[in-house]
Amino acid sequence: xxxTHNWWGSNSEGAIxxxxxxMDDWNSYTIGKYSPYFTAPERFNDFWWNWDYAQLSHADYxxxxxxxxxxxxxxxxxxxxxxxRWYSFPQYYRPFRPYRITxxxxxxxxxxxxxxxxxxxxxxxxxxxxxxxxxxxxxxxWQPIRFLPLNVxxxxxEKGKIGTRYKRSILKRPRHRxxxxxxxxxxxxxxxxx
Length: 194
Description:
three-stranded parallel β-sheet, 23% strand, 13% helix
């Protein structure tokens, strides 16, 4: 769908796709092509205004990262098992991190999503995978691929959307003070006696 030459309330390339609900969010909808877009709120509803005078910007589609899959995939992706291990220096432990599908995923024609053995994929509730290209799942009975529901609380904690119970919280209770003249006079005398 052609939705170009619009002002979306922001000139940021990252904020505009968040305002458009299209195939990247729910793959039963159509693709919304919003580039080029206006970078400032122009007078584009004025009858005498010409859109050639506007400041336009062009956006590029950004492929999703492998660990956070969503939207459209145009290039080949390989989901391999990242085992948990201790590094030799500086002696820190890297835990196992599963792959996540947070919104509807569409594998476009010419792209391949290759999932290897023993990989865990956590899927957000009510999320679909539409395969227009290739999906190769290489698993056996003893080395399966696991599709599990996503722990929503854990995912939001990692993104910093909700506070964890492990962080220390400081509660500041409001002190209700009486600001009458008698209270101020009594406070003054108490300080003077010290």
